[in-house]
Amino acid sequence: MSILHRRAEGSSVQPPLSQAVGYVVVLVVGVIIALVMMLITKVLKKTTGEDNKKTEMFMTANRTVRTGLTASAVISSWLWSTALLGSSYVGYDYGVAGPFWFAAGCSPMIVFFSLLGISCKRKIPEAHTSLEVVRIRYGQTAHIVFIILCLINNIFACANMLLGAAAVITAMSGMHIIAATFLLPVGVTVYTFVGGIKATFLTDYFHTAIILIIACYFTAKAFSDYQVGSIGNLYDLLKAAAERHPVSGNQGGTYLTMTSKSGILFGILHTLGNFGLVIMDTSYFIKAFSASPAAVVPGYTIGGIAYFAIPWALGTVMSSVALGLENQPNFPTYPRRMSTSEVSNGLVLPYAAMTIAGKGGAAASLLITFMACTSTLSAQVIAVSSILSFDVYREYFKKSATDRDLIRSSHFGVIFFAAFSAAFSTMLHYVGIDLGWTLYMLGVVTCPGIFPMIFTILWRNQSKAAAIISPVLGMATGLAVWIGTASHFGGEVSVATTGDVLPCMYGTVASCFSPIIYSVLITLIKPQRYDWNYFKKEKLALEKLENDLTTAHHHETPTGADDSGLEDGGVRNATLDTKVLKRWGRIAAFWSIATFLGHWVLWPLPMYGSRYIFEKQFFVAWVIVSIIWLWGTMLIAIFYPLIDGGIQQIHQVYQGLTHSKSIAESHSSGYKGSDATTSPSAASISDEIQEKKE
Question: Which residues make Cβ contacts (< 8 Å) with residue 535, sequence separation at least 6?
Answer without folding.
Answer: 123, 124, 133, 136, 137
